Amino acid sequence: MTPDSMARVDVAAARSGLDSFGLMLRAGEAVAAAALRRFPGALRFLVLCGPGNNGGDGYVTASALSRAGATVLLHGLAESSALKGDAARAQSLCGLPVLSLDRFAPLKGDVVIDALFGAGLTRDLPEAARVLIRTVRDAGLPVIAVDLPSGIDGATGEIRGDAFEAVSTVTFMTRKPGHILLPGRLHCGALEVFDIGIPRRIVEAEARALWINGPGIWNGHARALSAQDHKYRRGHVTVFSGPYAATGAARLSADAALKAGAGIVTLASPADALAINAAHVTAVMLARIDTASDLSAWLSDARRSTFVLGPGFGDLDRARRFAVMVAEVGRRLVLDADGISAFKASADQLRGLFEAHAPRLVVTPHEGEFLRLFPDIAADQGLGKVGKALSAAKALGGIVVYKGGDTVIASPDGRAAIEENAPATLATAGSGDVLAGIIGARLANGMPAFEAACAGVYQHGQAAISAGHGLTAEDLAAHILVDG
């Protein structure tokens, strides 16, 4: 859930009759329990409390730790008189003296509990908080963050000036985008999610259609294998090859599509690359497609349902022409690499070509390609990665797979998923070509475009995990599991 959604949950919970202070008590006590479990031998717990409800959680935490027999020093960013509502009540009931931040003097063996700002931060940290973060970092003290390390924007994962680097983060009810998106994810350490007693019906009523990517998104859309299957029933993927000196990327896509479950895959090759491609493929079929006339004849067979265009393609003008032809006959298309570059700043043209009741276009841009295709959206500093991907999907009328270590899959209907299990080993040449092929296979199997993209991204990450260190793009296809 986004921080805004979680704030609505808190309001709805109070309106339903739940005691908001009771929720704060459970949150703070959960943090205290986590701290004692993780650091039973701490010299002292230094609890840093901010001016809002995150600070209120901190005051409850400090009180619970003290009752458990731990030594606690409490530091407040705001004067007690400035606190309001549940935070003020938590501070008054705590009973411990509140020291100013300028009296913060850490010792070896201390553990810091960060309850300054949490997930609701939307502005840069004040200088006093930045100084405190630098002091803790220089002292090398472990930090437990309440909700989210202070300095991380809960909606975008971005760093607001500086941020604590926690060994553990305790959050409540659900994860927030800042826990999953980079660079915030790298600051959270081990993440624990505690149910503090808000009914699920209230959480679901206020939630956006935002998920951690996983099989629950597409399980109901996966077509089971059948003894009655034949290759065309499992779907035909056509992958366009580049010229003779740039054929490898398309072969990676084609091989991945076949391994990911397409019934038949054809490499559509220009004449000058036929011999090279023929020397490298066996189960992947080969067809000569040089001209628009060649493609028109190929498209006359309706069983050729799904296309991958862009990996190593090279000729941007021809890429545009081919994409238009695929669109005009109602086929599904995964647009990657040079296919994306061919439509620089022309997302509206793609929308006009592929606009339909159900999306049938998937684009898979990395950061630079996203900037080329959606320059205005990429330049919007008010949007995080999820917001940019959703805005792009709406502008495109198709599915956007905004790649990276925190890939976001977005649909024009407002659904989005964030991939959290893609290992850093995927940062290797050709990895994106493999992903395009996997998504193409899922589309050819008959999955709706959003679910196909989510499944493809997940399979891609799982294949990389299976391949282990030192993987190359060629290794990925061999580790693809069709059941994801």
TrEMBL record:
Note the coiled coil stretches, chain numbering.
none
What is the official name of this protein in its record?
Bifunctional NAD(P)H-hydrate repair enzyme
Q: Which domain of life is it from?
A: Bacteria
Please tell me where K(+) binds in this chain: N54, D114, S150
Ranges for domain YjeF C-terminal: 214-484
Quaternary structure note? Homotetramer.
Task: Keywords in alphabetical order, please.
Answer: ATP-binding, Isomerase, Lyase, Metal-binding, Multifunctional enzyme, NAD, NADP, Nucleotide-binding, Potassium
Where does this protein hold (6S)-NADPHX?
53-57, 118-124, 147, 249, 312, 366, 433
Q: Recorded E.C. number(s)?
A: 4.2.1.136, 5.1.99.6
Question: What InterPro entries does its record include?
Answer: Carbohydrate_kinase_pred_CS, CARKD, Nnr, Ribokinase-like, YjeF_N_dom, YjeF_N_dom_sf
> In which organism is this protein found?
Peteryoungia aggregata LMG 23059
Gene that codes for this? nnrE
Its annotated function is as follows: Bifunctional enzyme that catalyzes the epimerization of the S- and R-forms of NAD(P)HX and the dehydration of the S-form of NAD(P)HX at the expense of ADP, which is converted to AMP. This allows the repair of both epimers of NAD(P)HX, a damaged form of NAD(P)H that is a result of enzymatic or heat-dependent hydration. Catalyzes the dehydration of the S-form of NAD(P)HX at the expense of ADP, which is converted to AMP. Together with NAD(P)HX epimerase, which catalyzes the epimerization of the S- and R-forms, the enzyme allows the repair of both epimers of NAD(P)HX, a damaged form of NAD(P)H that is a result of enzymatic or heat-dependent hydration.
Which residues are listed for AMP binding in this entry?
Answer: K403, G404, G405, D406, T407, G432
Q: Which reaction does it catalyse?
A: (6R)-NADPHX = (6S)-NADPHX; (6S)-NADPHX + ADP = AMP + phosphate + NADPH + H(+); (6R)-NADHX = (6S)-NADHX; (6S)-NADHX + ADP = AMP + phosphate + NADH + H(+)
Required cofactor names: Mg(2+); K(+)
UniProt lists the family membership as follows: Belongs to the NnrD/CARKD family. In the N-terminal section; belongs to the NnrE/AIBP family.
Cofactor detail note: Binds 1 potassium ion per subunit.
Q: Which Pfam families match?
A: Carb_kinase (PF01256), YjeF_N (PF03853)
Domain YjeF N-terminal intervals? 6-204
Record's keyword annotation contains Nucleotide-binding:
yes
